[in-house]
Amino acid sequence: MQNYEDRAVEVRQSDVQNQLKIIANHLITYNYLQDTSSEVINAELEQLSNLYSGRVLIINGNLKVIKDTYGISEGKTIISEEVIKCFKGTSIANYDRNNGFIEITTPIVEIVSEEMATERMPAGTELTRGVMLTSVSTDIIVATMAVLNRKSLIIEIIMFIFIFVIAVILSKVLIEPFERVTKAITEVGEGHLNEPISVPDYLETEHIVNAFNDLHERMKALDDSRQEFVANVSHELKTPITSVKVLADSLLAQPDTPAELYREFMVDIATEIEREDKIINDLLALVKMDKAAGDLNISTVNMNELTEIILKRLRPIARKRDIELLLVSVREVVAEVDEVKMSLILTNLVENAIKYNKEQGKVTVTLDADHQFFTVEVADTGIGIPEESLNRIYERFYRVDKSHSREIGGTGLGLAITRNAVLLHRGSIKVESTLGEGTKFLVKIPLSHTIL
Ligand code: ADP
């Protein structure tokens, strides 16, 4: 609209200016500035003012109005900035938008001819003899603008409604796959759906859905392992209780049981209770370690001395089966560790190496370190672990040979506890084993425990 207005005003201005230039020439030709009686010029001026609904004032060199098409100001003197400037050669055209007119000043120029030429005024010199001050109405432009404004408003409203409708439809269509994702996730959440969901409409929905499926898988695995753990715990705790009950019942069933048989049964009952106690203690140790991740009681420990103490404690058990316990200290190892948990790691590994060894076997504990880590290797000459069980031995309650392990007092929790304790120290545990030849556990732990 602004463009239209500017352009229309420009066109009108140049139209009127062209007309005025022609009339200005006629004014000189008809000597109108001296004599305003010329019919031709008056008719021309009248026609111009009618055509553009305007007013033309002709001002002579004395700034006197010699002609006013409205007939109001004739004979008056006019001293306005625009007129003076025009005498000096600057013609202006002002658009007064508020009052709806264009004001134009046009110089009335006489060119000095050969005959009139003097020394001071050579031929061809332009002399401004007077000024035409014209104002033309722009009512038509304003009226056209009003019509155009109305039309453009209608177009704007139609466009707005159109864009709004398109936007609503588009957003509905575009959002649809996301709503499907939400619906699918809700269904999974409510338990109606248990398979992986799929909304492959956009790359984005696919990514969201994949991330959700992964999370769901992990949660399912976690839930499965929790259920399995609870089932295992119940089973493990129940076994000794069942034995105790069977033993007690059989004692009660015989009215006069000899005292030796009583004693014998009571010894068995005590063994079962001891077993129950061991399982509970192991479980508590495991739970405590799960809960208090990072809750380490760090102190500087001489690993060689600690290992020596543990081996000394376990030697009587080893001796029973004629197993040799050996400590190889490659170098002195002093590390920042939790002493209690470190003892637990060593005890469990060496105990296993004794438990799953052969008569007259050998257990070698090797201590070594570099500038960053220390390593403890526990190698035995025992029964070994089958290949397929190697990555399951750290599972809670996993035992390669359940009945054998139980016979020798295993709970299946020892390695789970050991691994947790190693991980708390930000270390790693590895196992190598050859069935029938022996097993080697390698624990690697940082020498210094700086909290990150
Ligand atoms: P457990 O109380 O039964 O010993 P662990 O968690 O300590 O439980 O060990 C899990 C299983 O790994 C054991 O039941 C045993 O089958 C196997 N195992 C552990 N250490 C050894 C070893 N040094 N030699 C052979 N088998 C081992």
Question: Helix tally?
Answer: 10
Count of distinct strands: 12
Average pLDDT figure: 91
Helix share, percent: 40-55%
Distance between the termini: 67 Å
Instruction: Assign an overall shape.
Output: rod-shaped
- Radius of gyration, in Å, reads 55 Å
Unreliable spans are none
Bound molecules: adenosine-5'-diphosphate
Q: At CATH's second level, what is the architecture of the largest domain?
A: 2-Layer Sandwich
With strands numbered from the N-terminus, the spatial order across the biggest sheet is 2-1-5-4-3
CATH domain class of the largest domain:
Alpha Beta
Largest sheet: 5 strands, antiparallel
CATH level-3 fold name of the largest domain: Heat Shock Protein 90
Assembly type: single chain
Proportion in β-strands: 15-25%
Helix and strand succession? HHEEHEEEHHHEHEEHEEHHEE
Write out the CATH superfamily name of the largest domain: Histidine kinase-like ATPase, C-terminal domain
What does it look like?
Helices cover 52% and strands 19% of the residues. The protein has 452 residues and is α+β, with helices and mostly antiparallel strands. It folds into 3 domains: 136 residues, PAS domain (Beta-Lactamase); 87 residues, Orthogonal Bundle (Helix Hairpins), CATH 1.10.287; 153 residues, Histidine kinase-like ATPase, C-terminal domain (Heat Shock Protein 90). Strands 2-1-5-4-3 form a 5-stranded antiparallel sheet, with helices on both faces. A hairpin with a 3-residue loop joins β9 and β10. α4 runs parallel beside α5. Adenosine-5'-diphosphate binds next to α8 and α10.
